[in-house]
Amino acid sequence: MSNDFFSSYENEVSTEDLYIKTNYLPFDLVTGGKGLPLGGFTHLYGGNGLGKTTLLYTVVKNLVIRGEGVLWVGAENTKELANSMGLYGEESFLKKPEYSHLKDKFRYLDAGFYTELEEISREFIKSPYRVMVIDSMTAFCASPETIKEKGIEDVLVGLDARIQTQYFKLYANLLKSTKKSIIFVTQSRADIGGRSFGFTAPQDKPATGNAGLFYSILRVLLQGDATLKASDMGQQGDHQVGKTGWLKAEKNRMALPFVRLPVFILFGKGASNIQALRSYMEAMSYFKSAGSRFQISFKGTEVSVAGRKGLLDWISNNMDALMEDVYENISAYYNILSLGAFKNIKGQAPMVATSEVQIEVPSSSILEDKKEA
Q1: pLDDT band at 68 (very low <50, low <70, confident <90, very high)
Q2: pTM over cut 0.90
Q3: d(CA 353, CA 351)
Q4: CB of 345 within 8 A of CB of 226?
Q5: Mean pLDDT, residues 163-187
Q6: What angle in degrees, to the nearest 10, is found between the helix axes of 273-283 and 319-328?
């Protein structure tokens, strides 16, 4: 083969065609700061009640604010959660005058059978939307018509697994050619089959077939570590209001896999960027405690603030600068995380400001995707 073949080939694909920044820090950092990958499936899984849907609604809200069209396919009834986070219903932020131009950027569709999912997916491929969320894949089942067509013998031999395999195989190619993304959610289960005489602890394993594992270009595990209580937030009461945990990339084609990033999820409100930035500042030694005060040292600025609320308020007021600093120091942050800077956050009082907003989105200057030099 002549060299003319290679010399005439031009790669016109830019990074803007491959990723979308979500502006939810832990999710973006899982892919090395690039964001949500386009052209394939992204798989989020974890145990029940950890906040997978809450985390995804946070990501989706940020994407919609950026002007991205998102289609949500709900096999589980999460409309109330979407309503409480301002994405759905009469209280949706999309109904406010300043966001009127985004009113068609988010759609919620109910579905429960694979035939419905396939019909929605076909329309999604032809639509201007670039992102679709399936919550959750394990909640779908074969329709009565499909069961009658296949017969009871086929139902007993993994009908769901075979339908999923056909779905992933078909749409993996369609997503690649159209540069769109489907995020699907599943639960995790204990992989007890990998134990050896009781000496090996069971590991979290996605509750999906091998096709979902194979065709995903990004697979992320959400693990719970500790509960967030009202008293941890400086409020009265001892009831649970959220979770602290980890976001870990089990399969990653964009950056280093197996890096664990701390996440802070407030149930019914969203995943907190302020808490993620606080963990980043702690890892980078940007502040130290001195009694009841925190001494902040950031880019030549020396500031002393009173208490945890003062620290978080300072972070909230300086989010743009902190977000820029994170993207400039991703490699250093990865190195610190790999050394186990946050091996165990269980038992530490999470620092959450009582006045914290539900979703924190930086200014438009930070929303622009960073182009490679």
Answers
A1: very high
A2: no
A3: 7
A4: yes
A5: 92
A6: 50
User: Is the per-residue pLDDT at 207 higher than 70?
Assistant: no
User: How far apart (Å, rounded) are the C-alpha atoms in residues 74 and 308?
Assistant: 38
Q: Has residue 253 got a pLDDT over 70?
A: yes
What is the pLDDT, as a whole number, of residue 77?
A: 77
Give yes or no for a contact between 294 and 285, defined as CB atoms under 8 angstroms apart. Answer: no
Q: What is the pLDDT of residue 362?
A: 40
pLDDT reported for residue 355: 34
Cα–Cα distances (Å) from 11 to 7, 38, 52, 102, 344, in that order, read: 11, 17, 36, 33, 44
Do 261 and 288 contact (CB within 8 A), yes or no?
no
Q: How far apart (Å, rounded) are the C-alpha atoms in residues 281 and 312?
A: 11
Task: Give me the chain's average pLDDT, please.
Answer: 78
Please state the rounded mean pLDDT for residues 71-79. Answer: 86
